[in-house]
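Quick review question:
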């Protein structure tokens, strides 16, 4: 019972489970994932703590161990079926994927696994069985790779669509739980294969470090918590600097103001550039220290007005000329073609040249009209300190996003669109041609993702532990009378992207400056 309460308390603390809807549980058949599934089955379903959450299991055969992998898939399917749960079993030739995409076998397996899980989840939450020992190994892995402060925070309870209910327990805990409940885990011989870096960390590096410092695991976790606080503060500084530094932002390119960027402390310059490249990559910046130094040399080039281009990993290019610095994601064919020119990259006027395109906003009005059929529009939402924007996604980004949605490839959707807490994408056909943006009013309701019914915005804010003084400063986006985005919190389930989506609208908020207030007033 203690294990159940520990995990349930962790779930409650971080609000990991939806109130209702489907939850995908990744199950390999090992002790960790069996423990996770068994615990979630005790918590979810009619008459239980989460009565409206339905579990669905997903298992991927990586084809790494031949017939043994096939047998594992069959055994997992049989066990899950005996528990009365639906299961989706997939199979992929990971060694072939490794060769095709020029990834390590370990990276190819991870990539294939998350692609499969997101295809099954179709945008919904996914529970994985990472625990405290995985956290320790991840911290060492990131340290060995030199990821800097941002990578030393480690695994988080929730990262986008991934939830980790077992981060408060150890592998020994999951093994003991399986023994108590007569669960027989599958043995995966690849967990002992030291060709994989994580396994070498587990079986060689950690025991060696523990011989020097028996409390090495606790030390690493404590350091991660210290650095998490520092990293959060830095991210807040990047949030504050973003609207001053970023002049244009689209899914395929982000334009910065060179002089304003260079006026920042070097630490903030690097963290802001890290965020820019993360948004243009797979959600994680590919930059290492050598790349930052190359970027800084480019920014300080002695010929200020001469166009300079730098090619970075994951098909990200930088074009620097005069006061503009353009980060651009290119296709592989473009990347192979040498340096790219920067004219017309962002496709429109400077942000400063666009005035009051949100359509008649008055800084003293109760709400402001937003016309989504005009790009790069913006208006300050009265009483919030935020500037709201809406634009229709067009061109290659739209085509790529719609095609990925049609395939159900959610990892590719997120790679193309790069949503964040402050930037979301909704189905344009479901919201119409105009939005209004305002602060909350009594009776406002929203249907959270995966829910069948609406919920009061007030209750959502309380459940999410939003500070009382912040609740009246949050912008709400409405299509007619329906709230489609509680900004910074969640979109409405009825306007989410789906395989039927043909028109995509990007909604965003950013901190408003005094200058913005004057311009929109």
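Suggested answer, residue by residue:
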């Amino acid at each position: 019972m203690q294990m159940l309460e520990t995990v349930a308390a962790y779930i409650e603390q971080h609000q990991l489970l939806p109130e209702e809807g489907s939850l995908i549980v990744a199950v390999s058949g090992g002790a960790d994932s069996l423990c996770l599934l068994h615990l979630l089955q005790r918590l979810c379903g009619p008459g239980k703590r989460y009565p409206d959450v339905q579990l669905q299991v997903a298992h991927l055969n990586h084809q790494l161990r031949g017939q043994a992998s096939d047998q594992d898939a069959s055994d997992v399917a049989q066990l899950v079926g005996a528990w009365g749960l639906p299961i989706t079993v997939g199979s992929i030739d990971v060694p072939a994927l490794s060769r095709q995409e020029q990834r390590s076998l370990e990276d190819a397996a991870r990539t294939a696994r998350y692609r499969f899980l997101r295809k099954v989840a179709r945008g919904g939450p996914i529970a994985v069985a990472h625990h405290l020992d995985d956290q320790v190994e991840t911290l060492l892995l990131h340290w060995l790779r030199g990821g800097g402060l941002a990578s030393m925070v480690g695994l988080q309870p929730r990262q986008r669509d991934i939830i980790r209910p077992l981060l408060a327990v150890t592998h020994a805990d999951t093994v003991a739980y399986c023994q108590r409940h007569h669960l027989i885990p599958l043995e995966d011989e690849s967990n002992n294969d030291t060709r994989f870096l994580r396994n070498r960390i587990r079986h060689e590096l950690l025991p060696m470090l523990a011989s020097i410092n028996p409390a090495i695991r606790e030390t690493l976790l404590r350091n991660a918590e210290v650095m998490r606080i520092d990293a959060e503060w830095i991210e807040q500084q990047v949030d504050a600097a973003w609207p001053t530094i970023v002049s244009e932002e689209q899914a395929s390119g982000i334009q910065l103001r060179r002089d304003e960027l260079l006026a920042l402390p070097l630490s903030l310059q690097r963290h802001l550039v890290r965020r820019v490249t993360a948004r243009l990559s797979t959600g994680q910046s590919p930059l290492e220290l050598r790349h930052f130094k190359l970027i800084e040399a480019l920014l300080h080039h002695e010929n200020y007005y001469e166009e300079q281009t730098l090619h970075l990993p994951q098909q990200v290019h930088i074009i620097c000329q005069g006061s503009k610095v353009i980060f651009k994601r290119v296709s592989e064919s473009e990347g192979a073609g040498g340096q790219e020119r920067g004219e017309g990259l962002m496709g429109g006027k400077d942000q400063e040249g666009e005035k009051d395109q949100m359509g008649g906003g008055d800084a003293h009005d109760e709400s402001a009209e937003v016309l989504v059929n005009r790009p790069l529009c913006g208006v300050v939402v009265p009483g919030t300190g935020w500037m709201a924007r809406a634009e229709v996604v067009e061109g290659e980004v739209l085509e790529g996003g719609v095609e990925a949605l049609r395939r159900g490839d959610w990892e590719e959707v997120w790679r193309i669109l790069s949503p964040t807490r402050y930037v979301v994408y909704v189905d344009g056909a479901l919201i119409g041609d105009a939005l209004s943006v305002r602060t909350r009013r009594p009776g406002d309701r929203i249907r959270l993702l995966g829910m069948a019914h609406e919920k009061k915005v007030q209750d959502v804010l309380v459940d999410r532990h939003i500070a009382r003084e912040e609740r009246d400063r949050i912008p709400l986006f409405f299509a007619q009378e329906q709230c489609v985005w509680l900004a910074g919190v969640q979109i409405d389930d009825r306007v989410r992207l789906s395989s039927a989506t043909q028109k995509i609208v990007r909604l965003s908020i950013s901190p408003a400056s005094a200058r913005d207030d004057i311009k929109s007033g």
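Why it works: The chain has three domains: 2-217, 251-335, 355-520. Residues 98 and 108 are 5 Å apart (CA to CA).
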